[in-house]
């Protein structure tokens, strides 16, 4: 009887050992670009796989990592998941799952990892093999010294130029020029408007202008206003006439003080997928001294201009205060209407003309568009 009891207990212990993941207790260091990273929750070896706390690694690489209750892409999906924001790229993963979803400039792909995402002592852990794929860095595991080495070079200016150049256009009128950003496809509203795109720019550039054209992919296209809502341009709020009149109310919350407008770019025979603007910068976190990048366009030439936030201002609007950011970026005269990006490559706003009081260029947050 005693022997049977011992055998039964032994079997139960073995089954428990099989069911529970094994966690090694050895001390593992993380070194990012030559600097040792302090980990409140250190890396672990789980069933022979090296796992790292994704929030700790993300902070070291200047990448936002957060819990989200729903998918940014398809709405509510049930359980909470981990959301990683790497500028123009968003990554989503779920605890105990092996599927990692990447939204790269609006293109959604799934990656299968060999070890599920784990939650250990309240922190989310991922295998180091996925770090290089989702965060574009080099990862090396040195087993002899129990060290994870991560080398990361993040040239935000070059990434913005590479990813957004085709979306930025040069705007010409009879009296000057500026820059604009293609941000939406009108065919999504009306299938008959294939290859017609919406362009965001500053309203003051187009005030009382009759001859408006856009240079896109080295070709020039005549353009029409969808609506213009700057006080000096359209104070009565009357609807504009023309073939796109039905789209005047597309942004029903348009206010008169923002100095923003939208153009229709009828780019016939030019198939183009506008990049998603879902990844806007959080303007509540902007502070003086922050780095910004402005992507200018002059005809077919594009260039990045770097500067800093020099002031945070508020002006009175028809429906409450409007936040503006001042910048010392040495932009060209044609930069009005250019998109502005923050230090993580997230779109922050649109550049308008210089302030009459301070002379600094002002940034209109994209959330007002």
TrEMBL record:
Protein name stated in the entry: Copper amine oxidase-like N-terminal domain-containing protein
Domain annotation Copper amine oxidase-like N-terminal: ranges: 28-71, 82-150
A Pfam family the protein falls into: Trypsin_2
Organism: Formimonas warabiya
């Amino acid at each position: 009887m005693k022997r049977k009891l011992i055998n039964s207990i032994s079997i139960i212990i073995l089954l428990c050992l099989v069911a529970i993941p094994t966690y090694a207790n050895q001390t593992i260091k993380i070194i990012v670009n030559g600097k040792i990273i302090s980990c409140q929750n250190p890396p672990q070896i789980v069933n022979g796989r090296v796992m790292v706390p994704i929030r700790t690694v993300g902070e070291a690489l200047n990448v936002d990592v957060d819990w989200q209750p729903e998918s940014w892409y398809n709405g509510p999906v049930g359980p909470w998941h981990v959301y990683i924001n790497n500028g123009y790229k968003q990554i989503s993963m779920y605890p105990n799952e092996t599927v990692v979803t990447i939204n790269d400039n609006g293109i959604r792909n799934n990656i299968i990892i060999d070890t599920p995402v784990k939650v250990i002592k309240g922190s989310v852990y991922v295998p180091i093999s996925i770090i290089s794929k989702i965060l574009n860095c080099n990862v090396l595991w040195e087993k002899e010294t129990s060290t994870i080495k991560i080398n990361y070079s993040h040239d935000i200016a070059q990434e913005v130029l590479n990813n957004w150049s085709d979306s930025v256009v040069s705007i010409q009128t009879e009296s000057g020029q500026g820059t604009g950003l293609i941000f939406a496809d009108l065919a999504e509203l009306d299938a008959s408007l294939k290859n017609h795109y919406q362009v965001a720019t500053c309203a003051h550039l187009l005030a009382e202008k009759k001859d408006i054209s856009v240079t896109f992919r080295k070709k020039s296209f005549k353009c029409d206003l969808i609506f213009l809502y700057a006080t000096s341009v359209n104070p009565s709020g009357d609807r504009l006439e023309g073939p796109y009149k039905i789209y005047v109310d597309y942004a029903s919350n348009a206010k008169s003080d923002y100095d923003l407008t939208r153009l229709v770019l009828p780019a016939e025979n030019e198939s183009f997928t506008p990049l998603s603007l879902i990844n806007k910068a959080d303007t509540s976190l902007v502070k003086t001294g922050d780095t910004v990048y402005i992507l200018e366009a002059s005809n077919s030439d594009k260039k990045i201009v770097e500067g800093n936030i020099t002031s945070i201002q508020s002006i009175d609007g028809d429906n409450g205060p409007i936040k503006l950011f001042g910048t010392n970026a040495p932009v060209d005269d044609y930069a009005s209407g250019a998109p502005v990006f923050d230090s993580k490559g997230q779109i922050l706003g649109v550049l308008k003309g210089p302030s009459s009081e301070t002379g600094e260029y002002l940034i209109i947050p994209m959330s007002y568009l």
